[in-house]
Protein: Endoribonuclease L-PSP family protein
Organism: Bacteroides fragilis str. S36L11
Amino acid sequence: MSKNMEYRKHRIEYLRTTVEYSLFGGEGGTREAHLMFHVDPEAGSYEEQLTAIRKAYHRILSRKVKIRGMVPVFCRYFLSDAANQWEALQAVLQKEPSCAVSVVQQPPLDGSKIALWVYLTSEPNVAYKHYWTAGAGVSCGKSERQMKTLLKSYEADLVGKGCTLASDCIRTWIFVQNVDVNYAGIVKARRENFLGQGLTESTHYIASTGIEGRHADPKIHVLFDAYAVKGLQPGQMTYLHALSHLSPTALYGVTFERGTSVEYGDRRHLFISGTASIDHRGEVVHVGDVQEQTRRMWENVEKLLEEGKAGFEDVAQMIVYLRDASDYPVVRALFAKRFPDTPIQFVVAAVCRPAWLIEMECIAIVANSNSSYESF
């Protein structure tokens, strides 16, 4: 186990809710936590499950000593039926403190109607500004046009903060309605935009997950979340490739980094992009076998983490995407055996190639000591 990462699990029986969380950092420094909330399917209607998760969230914030003083900077709600659940969630969120809130239809695989991931920190160093963008979407045009519009708008927003997409964006998430049909438009729009920004195979791209996901509005084909940091010096951000196991993404026409490492004076963050069962030639490995695809996916992620001087023991959270919900019992058992303590959300979401049955992403945090950079 990592000496720096602490894992906890808390069951709130009267709310029929379980919270898995990771804690990093101690007294005198910035602390971070990732919380995954799971409500029992038997907890009742959607409104009752939403109420249970919200009460559990506030209970954890107020009663868990190691989390007191932290504030949410980003959260994501995973819904089973956004069209019928969006309105009630928005009514609740209007009463909450400011935080970047992502909402996506990716049904939780445990059978519940709603799940929640929350990222919290104590006050970070004033040398850096952390900017989270969540839930961006437009309803005009097809996926290619929507992606172009979203990236252009995001660039303008970054410029207004004194940042640029090429220099300061760390991570993006792109949720695509009907990914088997609309993903090609996303790929084309992003590639053209990146070329205009000077982002090429010989420079760098941005860590990303491009996966099935829906908004409540069926006209919105693309949802966009992103994370950028202002104040990084050249050299603080490096890119992870694991070329012994994975191909450059440009080999099969897409433009994202397999992973990004951000080094601070006291810690290092690793953002691992959506990763599937792929080899160094860009080919799908173990077609039709979800168990073997899971193992190869783990191997690929492990190599990316190793390249960033980390391991699975440093992972703060995972999100696992399955194309076929019937694979969940098998995959859940595999993860429970290898990662019994890591906070994980399992959701239904088709990967960008039909032959990929499973994909995962994760965030890792490693203690660091580098006087060249300011602490987090």
The longest strand covers residues 358-367. The CA atoms of residues 45 and 52 lie 11 Å apart.
